[in-house]
Amino acid sequence: xxxxxxxxxxxxxxxxxxxxxxxxxxxxxxxxxxxxxxxxxxxxxxxxxxxxxxxxxxxxxxxxxxxxxxxxxxxxxxxxxxxxxxxxxxxxxxxxxxxxxxxxxxxxxxxxxxxxxxxxxxxxxxxxxxxxxxxxxxxxxxxxxxxxxxxxxxxxxxxxxxxxxxxxxxxxxxxxxxxxxxxxxxxxxxxxxxxxxxxxxxxxxxxxxxxxxxxxxxxxxxxxxxxxxxxxxxxxxxxxxxxxxxxxxxxxxxxxxxxxxxxxxxxxxxxxxxxxxxxxxxxxxxxxxxxxxxxxxxxxxxxxxxxxxxxxxxxxxxxxxxxxxxxxxxxxxxxxxxxxxxx
Length: 343
Fold this sequence. Notes:
Elements: E1 7-12, H1 30-43, E2 47-53, H2 57-66, E3 70-72, H3 75-82, E4 86-89, H4 97-105, E5 110-112, H5 120-132, E6 137-139, H6 147-157, E7 164-172, H7 182-187, H8 189-199, E8 202-210, E9 219-226, E10 231-237, E11 248-254, E12 257-262, E13 267-272, E14 279-281, H9 288-291, H10 295-309, H11 319-337, E15 341-342
Parallel strand pairs: 1-2, 1-4, 2-3, 4-5, 5-6, 7-10
Antiparallel strand pairs: 7-11, 8-9, 8-15, 9-10, 11-12, 12-13, 13-14
Helix pairs in contact: 4-5, 5-11, 6-8, 8-11
């Protein structure tokens, strides 16, 4: 794709929050996050935002009018009339498979929201179909583009932490999905992805979960072993609140120092071993881009469209979504059997 040609792009998923001006429909629902997809596709000067596809015509027309594009309620009709160069999908978490498969079979480069799917067989089908077509198939693990995460990645690769000894991930908020393991699959997939991104492959998992609220296994504690010898933990929940400060924390300890990430985008700190002085990054007064969580998606899309135009693989391939799902299912097996599961 030439660098000066505008790409025709379409969005599948109109979302339920028509206002699209905030998070009134929830902090991380398809409705609110679908607004972020539409915002980016509509405002990038290198794109022609040609269509939004939804299930309800009235709601989809309202969303399309908001962003100056066309509304459809049939994917096939949109593909035939618009012939997009790229499709972004933001659908309800348990409704990803059919629409994603349709875009893959049409041979169109695409980005999907996490989780890839809930079922491992469906994940295999999607990846196999995309591989047959050598298709650009990306997933939006946007946490990787948070400035603190990138600083942690840099510190690890510069050996400032030495040999990693342990890593912890804690992420808790609220949610009310139907699937009994929704928090694990649709939210803690970020935890699996970031821990492996920073620390390398997870080798084994031991898990405890609780259904204390009677709403499914919404809170869990995992003990992890990495292939490099480090150990780790993951605590996740939907029985908490995103309004709490320090709702997200990553700690990485090594033989040479420690790094801490606070609330994904809020702060990064590094201390050399035995030093009482920390190096701290946090966004400056005018640095709204790096302090806002939603902008991690902007950075991902910058990278994604650059790779797409160059004919390269996506910066985060959908295989990362399959890997997170494999780890989630290993976690469920560990909990149900009470044994350590080798991944």
